[in-house]
Amino acid sequence: MLRAIYPGSFDPVTYGHLDIMKRSSKIVDELVVGVLNNNAKMPLFSAAERVKMLKEVTTGFDNIVIVPFEGLLVDFAKKMEAELIIRGLRAITDFEYELQMSQTNHKLGPGLETMFLTTSIEYSYLSSTTVKEIAAFGGDTSQFVPEVVGRELKDKMKAKRSV
């Protein structure tokens, strides 16, 4: 059985992320979506909120599981018994960083391979950062994120403004 990990912060999950999940879930037997809880960053959503949203938007996929994690990706991969890391590339600018991470992960976890998928053209510009910025100014995010995520974004931004 081929088990892969698609790691990320998913803060919030976008249609670009879902595109990579959908396509990679057809390639592997099981796709573990690893939701990184990185204490060095200040995410808009807690890890628990991100996991909840991801579970809601991936309900139609039988071979996708959502698991939060902290620490090194290679340690998480070993714990999950995964042999493959899936990474999405939007543009050539992503490649240099992703290649460096891939080589580092391979050095730390020999036998752990990385597969890059380019995002579908309609999502090549899309990032969680852009979506959060649009939401912060009250813009419509419906073409970038699923409805449930859009509602959560709107509620989160409303709460931030009232603080």
UniProtKB/TrEMBL annotation:
Reactions this protein catalyses: (R)-4'-phosphopantetheine + ATP + H(+) = 3'-dephospho-CoA + diphosphate
GO annotation, biological process: coenzyme A biosynthetic process
Pfam families, A to Z: CTP_transf_like
This protein's record includes keyword Lyase: no
Domain annotation Cytidyltransferase-like: ranges: 5-133
Residues reported to bind ATP: 9-10, 17, 88-90, 98, 123-129
Enzyme nomenclature, EC number: 2.7.7.3
Associated pathway: Cofactor biosynthesis; coenzyme A biosynthesis; CoA from (R)-pantothenate: step 4/5
Record key words, sorted: ATP-binding, Coenzyme A biosynthesis, Cytoplasm, Magnesium, Nucleotide-binding, Nucleotidyltransferase, Transferase
Top-level taxon of the source organism: Bacteria
Membrane-crossing residue ranges in chain numbering: none
Record GO terms (molecular function): ATP binding; pantetheine-phosphate adenylyltransferase activity
Intracellular or extracellular location(s): Cytoplasm
Annotated positions binding substrate: 9, 41, 73, 87
A GO-annotated cellular component: cytoplasm
Cofactor(s), names only, from the UniProt record: Mg(2+)
Functional summary from the UniProt entry: Reversibly transfers an adenylyl group from ATP to 4'-phosphopantetheine, yielding dephospho-CoA (dPCoA) and pyrophosphate.
Assembly, per entry: Homohexamer.
Entry-linked HAMAP family: PPAT_bact (MF_00151)
Name of the molecule in the record: Phosphopantetheine adenylyltransferase
Species this chain originates from: Schaedlerella arabinosiphila
Lineage, opening ranks: Bacteria, Bacillati, Bacillota, Clostridia, Lachnospirales
Gene that this polypeptide is encoded by: coaD
